[in-house]
Amino acid sequence: MAETQKSQATSLHRGLSVLEFLATAQPSATIAELSERLGYPTASLYRIASVLTEMDYLGRDPTTKRYHLTNKMLRFGQPQSQQRGLVEAAAPALRGLWKSTGETSQICCLADTDTVVLEQLISVHPFKYSTNIGARTPSYSCAPGKAMIAWLPDELQESLITRLKYKRFTSTTITSRKHFREDIKAIRRRGYAIDDGEGLEGIRCVAAPILDGNACTAGAITIAAPASRLPDQTIQAVSKIVMQAAHAAGESYR
Asked: Which is deepest, 44, 86, 101, 202, by most CB within 10 Å?
């Protein structure tokens, strides 16, 4: 019995190591690469990868034989309320936002200091912005990240702002705690956040927080589009649509 438990614990440890490696080190790998990097026998890794693939935690490219994480892992990272995930609760509001604006619409959540895309509906326009489900972005350089941080409890908010590593991506990226705190205060006053090409040149975003029953951040809903389709004169009207969608998502989530 003790040997069986030890074997099971070893397999669990190795399986989690595979998931962590694909989540943080490189997005895909062959069994040989996993063995080289993790130091585990190829036969053991093949059995573990087969089980994880069968359970839909891993996908495998039949041509390259490379394994990658599936979106199933996102279910564990998203906020839950009354046995409903954030995506399930906010999906109707997301569809409404997408229909109203025609722009790429997303549901996001916080993962430590990053913003993670949980769901996405792609713009109807030929020239559009999109990313992968599960994509992570530094929260200080994107509208949904800033919107979520603005409605965190004060102590948690300050801790996150302090831990952020401010790196310049474009000419408009916020690169200091002082300026970020000022932006967060402004977001809190007006009710929505703007990303004016701060993470990606030429892309503008508008986001509003999805709030839980305690009026704290559960996630965010956002639209992203080329700056030419979100000029200054449209921001006020668009922000109202985004805030309405976020409010509807919050009502459904609570």
From this structure: 86
Sign for the CA dihedral angle at 114, 236, 214, 176 comes to: positive
d(CA 106, CA 28): 25
The DSSP secondary-structure symbol of 232 reads: H
Beginning with the edge strand found earlier in the chain, give each strand of the sheet holding 67-69 in spatial order.
Answer: 28-29, 67-69, 58-60
pTM: 0.72
Summarised one tens digit per residue, pLDDT across range 61-93 is: 888 888 887 766 655 555 655 556 788 889 999
Q: What is the rounded average pLDDT for all residues in the chain?
A: 88
- Alpha carbons 91 and 221: distance in angstroms, whole number: 10
Beta strand residue intervals within the chain, DSSP E? 28-29, 58-60, 67-69, 80-81, 84-85, 104-111, 114-121, 136-138, 193-196, 203-211, 217-226
As a whole number of angstroms, the distance between CA 243 and CA 249 comes to: 10
